Amino acid sequence: MPTLAVKRDLLFERIGQKFTEEEFDELCFEFGIELDEVTSERQQVAKEQGEKAAVNLSDEVIYKIELPANRYDLLSIEGLSRAIKTYLGKSSGQIRYTLL
Q: Which run of H or of E encompasses 6?
């Protein structure tokens, strides 16, 4: 299963709603995806390369979300947030494109 790493605050901003970690985990389960890991850039690098390599990195929360292999539309923050908004009834799911 593919995993998408997204910044929590940016995802919640695009959805238009904030969740606790437990609420978002439950929403993911209901939607058919899985909140795999909650981490930060600093924690990831510290785990992989040691504390010295992670000194100046961000503590911004990152959600790693497992997605079904057949849902290509969810492989970006834009697609994931659009699908969750539609699932929550905050959007019709219609996409409007403007030609420039």
A: strand 3-7
Residue tagged 């494109």 (tokens) = 97
Distances (CA, A) of 98 to 80, 86, 90, 93: 21, 21, 21, 16
In b/e form, how buried is each residue of 11-37, taking b as 16+ CB within 10 angstroms? bbebbeeeeeeeebeebbeeeebbbbe
- Smallest Cα–Cα separation from 11: which of 89, 79, 87, 97? 79
Decide if pLDDT at 95 tops 80. Answer: no
Residue 80, classified by CB atoms within 10 Å of its CB into exposed (0-12), middle (13-18) or buried (19+), is: buried
d(CA 49, CA 17): 34
Query: Quick one: average pLDDT of 19-43?
Result: 95
The tokens for 81 are: 């947030």
